Amino acid sequence: MKSLIHFALRRRGVVVGFTLALMTAGLYALQHIPFDAFPDLTGTRVEVITVAPGMAPEEVERLVTYPIESGLMGVPGAEGVRSVSKFGLSLVTVPFPDNVDVYFARQLVQQRLSDAKGALPVGIEPALGPVSTPMGELYQYVLTSDSLSLAQLKTLHDYVVRPRLRTVPGVSEVNSWGGLTERVEVIVDPVRLAGYQHTVVDVHNALANNTLAFGGSYLEQNGERYTLRGLGRVESAAEVERVVVGSHRGAPVRVGDVATVRLGAHPRNGAVTKDGEEEVVSGMVLKLKGADSRKVIAAVRVRMEEIKTSLPSHVKVVPFYDQTDLVARTTNTIIKNLVEGGLLVIAVLFLFLRNVRAALIVASVIPISMLIAFVGMALFGYSANLMSLGALDFGLIVDASVVMVEGFIRRMETHTGTNKQGLFERAAVEVGRPILFGIAIIVAVYIPIFTLDGMEGRMFKPMAFTVVCAVLGSLFLALTYVPAVSSWALREGHGEPAKWMVSLTQRYRSALAGVLQRPQPIVVVSAVLVVIAVASLTRIGTEFMPKLDEGSILITTRRMPSVDLADATRLSLAAERIVKQFPEVVTTVTKEGRPDLATEAMGLFEGDMYVILKPRDEWTSASSTEELVTKLDSALRVVPGLDVSFTQPLAMRLDEAESGIKTDLGIKVVGPDLDQNQAIAERLLRIVATVPGNADVGVEVADGSGQVRMQIRREALAQYGLSVADVRDAVDMAMGSQKAAELIDGFRRVDIVVRTPDAYRADAAAIGRLTIRAPGGELLPLTAVADVQSTTGPELIGHEDAQRRSLVLSNVRGRDLGSFVQEVRTRIAREVKLPPGVFLEWGGQYENQQRAMGRLTVVVPLALVLIFGLLFLSFRSVSQAVLVLSNVPFALVGGIAALWLRGLNLSLSASIGFIALFGIAVLNGVVMVEHLNHMRLSDDPEDETVAGRVIRGAADRLRPVLMTALVASLGFVPMALSTSPGSEVQRPLASVVIGGLVTSTVLTLFVLPVLYAWLEARDPRRPKAHHHPVDAKPAIA
Q1: Which GO terms describe its molecular function (predicted)?
Q2: Single pTM value for the model
Q3: pLDDT at residue 238 above 90?
Q4: What domains are defined for the chain?
């Protein structure tokens, strides 16, 4: 270190040039690091999406999900497997640790899928979901038109808008939702078909065998090669009608003789409505994992403007959800807080240093350290967001430079020689060790944050990384750049302390003298305050994280599982009309069911209503989001058959991605029997619904979905020489579930399907009358070989690690999450006895909270042990290390009091604030003890008492203690007071640090000198042999 300082002072031009190079690298990094509202809080995961047309949830589970799960269990590095089986869809999710590359994870899953495909039914092909995350749903829009039908709008979106958006760099996928997908329907007439002695299967096979294009290799003739092409595809509906089905009495029977050919649409699994007025077609742009949200959205907007010029004038593309707004608002919050905090820090520097040049030198360290942090973020792949930049404290960054510059000023005030270079070198070397020690403590207190896993790790590791990069950069600058520039800029001179500082010091000396004469009261009071503060922790509410206000609301809607799409759409339009009446609402868009690419396993009875809100200063009927939610909840209760719950778009997607649960609390009932699980879940629901604070309580719907069951009678099959496959084909083809052929028009593909008229498949009785051809040629009704009846069955079947589970869901309002869950757990333990083989798992935000707090209770004490080790290495004294470490409980008093006074819960954000506070509080103590030890080794008057020396030393350290404490706390004041978007996460952290600094500073100035004097009196020779004299203060945040 001495050599580094010597080099910096002898080669000042090199140091300044290198600093400019670092700044250039930082500016370059700033232009290339991604900008987001938040870090990507979803871990590495791979989704396997398998569409199984026509299959009920039970068959999907048994024939599709189980084979895929079995193949994926034990994938190297995977953290488990969870799945949902629904009508026609299996969605399997495989989460991986954060350090696993997503493309490597997909490769592992794909390898296992290749083995599992052999166990799947013929024609079922599992596919991997897009390389995106729930936070990547960054741009959503709707297409509307006064003259085009939903089918035409859907075609326009799928073949014009979507392909062009998919080519935008950084876009992983563009999903379609709502509208109608066109198909050519061959609607057979069962009476005419029976008259010609044919069946639906005959028509289907005729189309499949007569709508082909083929190649015949090539031939060579006269030295030239000719490619052979067989053109047998149909090009229009008219050609479909001319396809020959068979013959009857020697005459050909064509499709047109037994069926009507028309343009129709595939059965829909979802719909989209807007503002309670109409159905629309919606698109969603999914960002590629790791891409820069700001750049991707900007590129999407540009491409969308280009696309609009090629659309018909009556077609409108209206964006309704754009993460640019959230990114911009959170970025403004970050900039506002940092600028205000920086100005407050600079004001304190001017106030205490009373030297404009010195203050400017220290202040210049702030932007340079930030640029160094940007270099680190770019190298390690961190984005600029609310978490990585929002918790930076400029007081922490300038601390080392404050120590260095103040040492220069103090020496220059009394220096009269000509060797200015030597003066700066001696002053820099003198404070170099405590600066290095101070930064080491700051880094040590952030070590626990790097051990966090899951969502909490992804949330706070970027913050810890940025802080560590910035303070390490400030350390480098303090040892090189600051000495070099100071030796140029600072001038020798004599100065006097400010009058207000002189007066304050005199008052402090008098107060401390009184305390040293009667030390027992303040020590006892301090101890009592610590005990009260620790005891009161149990009465502070707990939660995982404060709810971030995204500026929009997402209302999840539920209806009866047996509802059809028409009724679901009618209820959605009614709910939208109610919500749209609120003056705070800009627009509403409801998505029912699932999109074309089934990344979400929602049924027709489920919907997500996006409620886009005006800026808060334009609200008139509500003063807060909580009040608006309460009013919306009351207003929507008038819609019959509609259950609603409230969340926010990103919050819901994150919760769902992390644990498959969209609410604050999810109780998983895991057991082998689905009916038994559901019965237990209903019992738990009744308990949760009676606990104060519950909101949006419900059970994930697992049954109640209408079914028509066809129980095959094998004796009858044997009698007629039929197989189950014959029955399946007859039913599938009559219902239009199987594609017979397709029309091809350029890039456009239109399926051709065969089906019976709606009246012949309207109910169980109609299904029973479907005809099947026996090998002998006779035509049989379905009831001849199967029992057909209407019943109900499961809507979905959820799995956790291949075990069936049911789910109880609840949000929490008006109460903290921790106490709510504790009461629920107590009630369930007392009132519910689980049968053998059934167990409960607790998920949602509560699961994240328990995991994070459990990890912190282990690693925080270890970090304190590390800090104790650093203190012992510095002082070579166990008693003095313990003395300095005693500042931690003193700091707790103020931090806990701040939470109480501001009505904040003990969240993970507040816990991180306590971690940061511990390091700052310890360093406050070091300032005092370090100088008191130095006073002990100086040439004291022989008749000076221990108390007198302690008073004199403590008074000397009053200014640096106050300055460093003010710099640290004022840097957090804008975060603590901000009401801007994103400040909800910063507020608990900043409040804890400010409150803790107030009490730890007061107690450091009074209690710590008392305890030091007491130790001195017991062993007056203790520190002399091992202490390293230091005049200046160690680095303080």
Answers
A1: monoatomic cation transmembrane transporter activity; xenobiotic transmembrane transporter activity
A2: 0.82
A3: no
A4: 1-32+354-496 (1.20.1640.10), 44-130 (3.30.70.1430), 182-265+706-793 (3.30.2090.10), 500-539+876-1037 (1.20.1640.10)
